[in-house]
Q: What sequence folds into this?
């Protein structure tokens, strides 16, 4: 971008290129018929493209005639103007339109008080792309956009007016929006400009809230097997979320934690899993995946009490780091007094390091599948698992190996002294009825 473009431009505009870029990006998302958007600022008798998006992304530095273009006319008349076909509209700078491939457009004047700031233009390569609704939406946003660029300290008042305080004078421009269906899009536009990512966070919250309220998921159970007898001794409850596109459960839970709904989603999944416990075979335990903060939730104790604590194993997940080991340790002590057991999940990866294990003193160590995969041909993995078996023996913990898929892996794990196992070789996740057969298969040894 050439320096000349800003010589006669206010410092507020020069210092606001980043927010102007967000504005054109969001305008392109808001006006779906548009395939390009730009902000033009005055320079002498020209208007210069300073921030561009979409089909106009490579047009920074392009100029149009200030006094012989639709943009210039919009700026001078302080009116939002629409061109349906640049080939026949005498108001446009036809040469500039042909240079950037624009056939139809909406030009929104941006003024701060009496001073012209620039023009927001949304454009399309097709004729007749825009309608009165597009003009109304953009006109209603003009004051917000101008204020955003020129006076950030006034932004909150304008945003408040646009988003809901209908008593303010600033909303007079939005009267035509009352009967439109795009109020939510306008709110998203403002949110993304003022706080990038806020709209996507709200969308995630809405999506996850719907899953929680409708229990839009199912629970499947993967057997946990005693490797000496090959009898099923427990099952891990795993959530399968229905809303598409498909995403793995750990992605759903991690996103829920990122938007403040992790505890609620984990609790509703745990509640659904525990409803199946009466259908478990006798003396078969249930393992629930829960994060540290969920263990402290007030509803968790009542769930455990109804289920029968001595059949519940908590697999501490690593969707969130432990904020305070002292607080978590105290909470776990309460649960253990009731009979609940603690398993550390994914030992050998993420937060599940030796320091984490020492501080929590779990009853069960669940080896991450990356330690198990190929252990029959990898002496390094065998050595690491052997060391963990020795460590578990010294601390009174038991070990469950996850991700067992081949009999060679199973044989090595048994020889190393691993007592429990889980994986496709021993049983895939399925309905609770699949746990009825207590024997997996004949012991390969």
A:
């Amino acid at each position: 971008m050439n320096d000349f473009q800003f010589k006669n431009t206010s410092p507020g505009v020069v210092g606001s290129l980043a927010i102007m870029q967000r504005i054109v990006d969001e305008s392109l998302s808001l006006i779906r018929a548009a395939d390009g958007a730009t902000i033009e600022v005055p320079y002498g008798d020209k208007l210069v493209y300073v921030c561009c998006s979409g089909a106009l992304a490579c047009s920074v530095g392009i100029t149009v005639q200030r006094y012989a273009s639709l943009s210039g006319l919009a700026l001078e008349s302080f009116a939002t103007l629409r061109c349906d076909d640049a080939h026949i509209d005498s108001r446009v700078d036809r040469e500039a339109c042909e240079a950037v491939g624009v056939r139809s457009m909406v030009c929104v004047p941006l003024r701060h008080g009496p001073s012209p700031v620039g023009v927001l233009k949304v454009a399309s390569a097709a004729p007749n792309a825009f309608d009165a609704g597009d003009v109304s939406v953009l006109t209603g946003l003009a004051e917000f956009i101008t204020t955003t660029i020129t006076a950030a300290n006034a932004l909150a008042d304008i945003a408040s007016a646009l988003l809901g305080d209908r008593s303010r004078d600033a909303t007079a421009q939005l009267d035509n929006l009352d009967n439109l269906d795009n109020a939510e899009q306008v709110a998203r536009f403002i949110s993304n400009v003022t706080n990038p990512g806020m709209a996507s966070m709200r969308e995630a919250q809405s999506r996850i809230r719907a899953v929680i309220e409708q229990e839009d998921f199912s629970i499947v159970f993967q057997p946990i097997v005693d490797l000496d007898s090959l009898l099923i001794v427990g099952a891990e409850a795993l959530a399968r979320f229905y809303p598409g596109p498909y995403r793995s459960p750990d992605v759903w839970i991690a996103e829920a934690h990122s938007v403040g709904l992790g505890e609620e989603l984990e609790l509703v999944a745990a509640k659904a899993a525990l409803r199946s416990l009466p259908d478990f075979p006798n003396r078969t335990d249930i393992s629930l995946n829960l994060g540290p903060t969920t263990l402290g939730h007030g509803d968790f104790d009542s769930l455990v009490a109804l289920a029968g604590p001595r059949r519940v194993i908590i697999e501490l997940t690593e969707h969130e780091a432990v904020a305070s080991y002292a607080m978590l340790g105290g909470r776990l002590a309460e649960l253990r007094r009731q009979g609940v057991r603690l398993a550390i999940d994914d030992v050998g990866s993420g937060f599940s390091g030796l320091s984490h294990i020492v501080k929590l003193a779990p009853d069960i160590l669940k080896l991450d599948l990356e330690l198990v995969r190929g252990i029959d041909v990898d002496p390094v993995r065998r050595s690491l698992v052997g060391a963990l078996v020795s460590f578990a023996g010294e601390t009174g913990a038991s070990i469950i190996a996850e991700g067992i898929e081949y009999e060679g892996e199973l044989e090595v794990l048994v020889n190393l002294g691993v007592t429990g196992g889980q994986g496709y070789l021993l049983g895939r996740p399925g309905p609770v009825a699949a746990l009825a057969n207590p024997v997996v298969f004949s012991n390969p040894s």
Summary: The radius of gyration is 31 Å. The mean pLDDT is 83. The domain at 203-436 is CATH 3.20.20.450 (TIM Barrel). The first helix runs from residue 11 to 14.
